[in-house]
Please model this.
Amino acid sequence: MHPLLTNEPGKKMFLMGNEAIARGALEAGVSFATCYPGTPSSEIPEQFFNISREISDFYFEYSTNEKVALEVAAGAAQCGIRCMVTMKHVGLNVAADPLMTLAYTGVVGGMVIVNADDPFMFSSQNEQDNRYYARLSSLPMLEPSTVAEAKEVTKAAYDLSEELKLPVILRTTTRLNHTRAAVELGTLPQRKTLGSFQKNPFNLVTVPAVSRKLHKDLLEKYQRAQEKAEQWPFNECAGNGKIGLISFGVCATYVKDAIKDLGIADQVKLLKLGFTWPLPKNLITNFLKSVEKVLVVEELEPVLETDIKAIAQDAGLTITIKGKGVGGFSRLYEYDPGLVRKAIAEFVGVPNKAPAPLDLSDVPPLPGRPPNLCAGCPHRATYYEVKEVFGSDSVFPTDIGCYTLGLLPPISMADFLICMGSSVSSGAGFSRCQPKKVVSFIGDSTFYHAGITGLIDAVHNNHNFTLVILDNGTTAMTGHQPHPGVNPEALQINRTRVVLEDVVRGCGVKDIHIIDPYKVKKSIETLKKAYEYAGISVVIAQQLCPLFARATKQLKRSRPFMINHEKCKNHRLCLNKLACPAMYLEGERVQIDKNLCIGCAVCAQICPENAIVPLKE
Amino acid sequence: MQDKRVVMVAVGGQGNVLSARLLGEACMLMGIPAIVSEVHGMAQRGGIVETSINIGDINSPIVSNNEADVLVAFEPLEGLRALNKCNKDTIAVVNTRPLPPFTVAVGQGVYPPVEKSLELMKAKLKRVVAFDGMELAEKANNPLALNMVMLGAFIGLNEIPISLEVMKKVVSERTKKQFLDSNLLALELGYQAIKG
Model:
């Protein structure tokens, strides 16, 4: 049985923030969940995926993208089913279109949209602050501060959603998603999987006349949300000091530690907000009236600081309210306990208690350890083959996935990346406005997510570039989730395969090639045809991700390779052109680590001396 | 007990996320508050994996620079790199078996000699215990059990009130049965490496 289905109220489990959120949803009776995976949110749907394979009264899908995920769930919610939609922060950009108007129609069954922000961009292309989305959409936003709270807040969010008849955004940051702590289990209720839909077009079909009324309704709901915010049990106020500290989310834990470490409990008063939009205006006003100055502790944008200043203005208060600029508080990156303690010490006017840094001036420069494409990764072979045909001077728009690591030398074949699917559409722009060849790279999952519309555009508008779809049969980057093109049999899932080649053909592409990147010579010959073609050419590079293949028992066992040093003349093409992590230098000679080599044989095919041979067992 | 801020550093694939989690589970079993934080992301692809375990009356899930009480380094270069997490009172446990990053193979850096790294660490920290953890994992018949060796070593430091028996109980309940014997042996060998 899946651990999150443990029905022992009171039992403690050591859960990751994402697991706690999934458990909270289960304790709220959620029976329907959708997502597109994205770090740091991916472990939430991973739980649902595994649970849905075990029990029949829970529907879960990996949707094609976040917009689809939200719309599928919107249908479920209209039928009165409790549902959850999860995504990373930039995923909400993709889902922003349905979000903004779903706020107008509202929901019947409770809906929680988990939005995982990523300050410091541990695994993201930007660190946008999605608290703005709550403000933009007028939807309620809740922000848990600890793992245990994450479960409780998720559960409470469903009652709130159904009471307000609005989707609720649960915002996390990476630090909460990927932290583990003890969580006490509650009860698991019966799940309702079948609801009913009451037709109500004059409240649900958002033509202008309807929407004019719905926007007014939304503002009334927003008013009620504000009243809810005032009474929200996860807002906390502690202390009686005259210096106010306001925070929320993970930062509130840093503030609590700073108060303890600096020994200033009698000088400060802390307001920790759990309901962060709409803000509990009265609660905040009363807090402001009870202190002499206030420091707002928030990562990323000064959103709360600005709002609190506005609340103070409304109340005619002139106390000092500070945030960004105090200590090292900036709009950049993730905060940490030391940074927050320093700023609070400065604001309160007490000495900071921090251990002195070590003198590291005698530590030599250390070699970096950047992430790398795995040993035997088929993307490495594809990159090599494309470079052999198109040279390194062509323009290479790239996309989001493991293959973005093609940025690093010696591959160095990534020139432009902004978001999911951008390789295809930006390739069109590049091909129109400069003379060099353009080769765009996109992964299979990313292609289904956001590449198809760009490809249709490229065909229709007669653009001229080559699109290489790196088809490794899975969503590798985020942990091998299925996508519409996966082989359902290998995963033992009852889903229909949407064949990649059929989609490409259906988009109107005439010049389509399929290569197996492990076959170097043949792939290069095929790529030459794409090179010569005037117009849109698509090359599908098909080879399973070795990690995925191993996990799903599809990896054909191949013998690892070794270097025959009698033949090797130390050209080092293998090392310098492929840079597979299974290779290393021993003195001046290249060696292959037999424990890392998966036997893909790509290096053996490019060695001019045929010196790379299967290891004799 | 005194609050303890523990940082574990390793290379992707060395299993430090599991060690940190098991340590957290052991604390929970003993009623000691613990928060474990992991840096994931692209780590699976050979990058650095850092976990922090905050034990005691601590709310924050992470450890700031200079604030680790204990550093557990699964790899000597990563131990050296993590000195920015340490201060003069930090205790470190270091596996001495190097795992050179790929950048060294392609000539983008020089791997610092292990002896030199240990010397630097010893000069700066309160106590450094260094041993070949991989040798012990191999002795336990499972090169993947380095994480158990390092976990055992950490328990052997006696920095937190978790006994080897409690740790063994958690490992028995939470790790795959097929590796149980080698995991328990690796845990024991790591513990003995500290206790002597």
